[in-house]
Amino acid sequence: MFFTKNSIRSTGQLLLRKSFSSSIIARAQAPLDASKLIINQTTTPKQKLPNEKLVFGKTFTDHMLEIEWTQENGWGTPVINPYHKLQLDPSTIVLHYAFELFEGMKAYRDSQGNIRTFRGDKNMIRMNKSADRICLPTFDGEELQKLIDKFLIVDKSFVPEGNGYSLYLRPTLIGTTESLGVSTPDRALLYVIASPVGPYYSSGFKPVSLEATDYAVRAWPGGVGDKKLGANYAPCVKPQLQAAERGYHQNLWLFGEEGYITEVGTMNVFFVFQHEDGKKELITAPLDGTILEGVTRDSVLELAREKLPANEWIISERKYTISDVAEKAAKGQLVEAFGSGTAAVVSPIKSIGWNGQEIEVPLAAGNSGELTKQVAEWIRKIQYGEEQYKDWSRVAQ
Ligand SMILES: *Cc1c(COP(=O)(O)O)cnc(C)c1O
Q: Domain 29-197 - what CATH class?
């Protein structure tokens, strides 16, 4: 592989070099500024699909938001353009070395017709952390949220109506330097596209079966599993196919000799254990760098701490293993389990294949556990503006 000189100095060092050189007058990099937005309306509006025809991530709205960045000038003018294909030189750095990161969030139509986003500030913080990790430019998250709000107003008619329906938003940041050198990108493109989506489960929950996966590892200490980098996802598809061949829906990602439970598919995962003293424990893995910092995960934890009686419940972020789960199940003390993420909010788990045995997970509420059902409803009400909780729901204007 060919390494350029740039590859051995970070952006920070570059800036330092510039500031020490009196002959170069450093031009200030422009910050991301939502007030500069330009809107180019489409002249060929798309036909909208009826709700029942919506397929996740297959169709997109009339427009997209785009902002270019250069090392020299910083963030350029934000533009909402008609949805279009990107034109990239075959040497573009994103296509070779995966300078790509993304976010996943949703916009919901409330009963007054307002369009709301859910805890977008958390997505902005996470997006900046991902960007920083792969030397792509960071930005003021509030400015991008304002731009997303404007984009939502422009394509408002695409936000479907109805419980469980929403507009999935995909903020994306790519390095666009045209060069095969492995180096800090000096050009980047931030764009946001939007896809109208239906409920993850069209008729109630569908509990999933998992295969505990130890032969492939999703994330590791010191790695980047806690960042939403595109490079983390392609390698997870083959183990998922292999699990599917054996009749399982998803991978339960384990880590290490001990078999620590980390995540399920592309979701965080929660278990409920019954303890001997009568208390129940809601448990999920701690944010130790191998766990994606899910906005849904954080919301589940906060709402559980707020709403569940403290004398009956323990809410834990701690390490636990697949053997712990098997042991609890054998004693009849495994209460329920679910995955959490923006796409499905919560996804009930019915069984886990591990070590030649099937761990059955109870579904006390029919298609899920009781808490799973409750959590889904707490979050849904806030997302659709039926209940106000702190500043978690933001009306686009
Ligand atoms: C996006 C993602 C999640 C869920 O995050 P949310 O913010 O709740 O949508 C969990 N795990 C992985 C690996 C993810 O990519």
A: alpha beta
